[in-house]
Design brief:
There is one protein chain. With about 90 residues, this protein is mainly α. It has one domain (about 5-90). The protein has helices at about 5-30, 40-65, 70-85. Helix 1 (about 5-30) packs across helix 2 (about 40-65) and helix 2 runs antiparallel to helix 3 (about 70-85).
Length: about 90
C-alpha cells in the first residue's frame, strides 16, 4: 500500500464485496433449491457459507479491479488459493 487513500479504497472494496456476496447468495441458493425453511439451520448455514465463499473470491478480484486495485487483490487471491492447496498459484522465485 502506498497511501491512506489506497487503504481506504481497499477497505471499501472489502466491505462492498462482502455485502454483494451475501446479496448474490440468496438467488444462487434459490436456483439450486435450498430453502432456509425446509432445512435445519445446522445444514442450511454451512451450505450457505460454502456457496458464498467462492462467490466472494471471484467478486473480490472483480470489484478490486473496478476500483483500480486489481494488482493488490490478485496477489491477495493468489495467497488465499495457495493456502487452500492450489500450489500452481504460488509465485516462483
Amino acid at each position: 500500500m502506498t497511501s491512506n487513500f489506497q487503504l481506504a479504497i481497499i477497505l471499501l472494496v472489502f466491505s462492498i464485496t462482502g455485502s454483494v456476496a451475501v446479496w448474490v447468495a440468496k438467488p444462487v441458493l434459490d436456483l439450486v433449491g435450498l430453502d432456509k425453511e425446509a432445512l435445519s439451520p445446522w445444514v442450511f448455514w454451512p451450505i450457505r457459507i460454502f456457496i458464498i465463499f467462492p462467490i466472494y473470491q471471484v467478486l473480490i478480484v472483480l470489484i478490486g479491479a473496478i476500483f483500480g486495485q486489481f494488482k493488490f487483490f490478485w496477489a491477495f487471491e493468489k495467497k488465499m488459493l495457495v493456502r487452500l492447496g492450489f500450489k500452481q498459484f504460488k509465485d516462483r522465485e
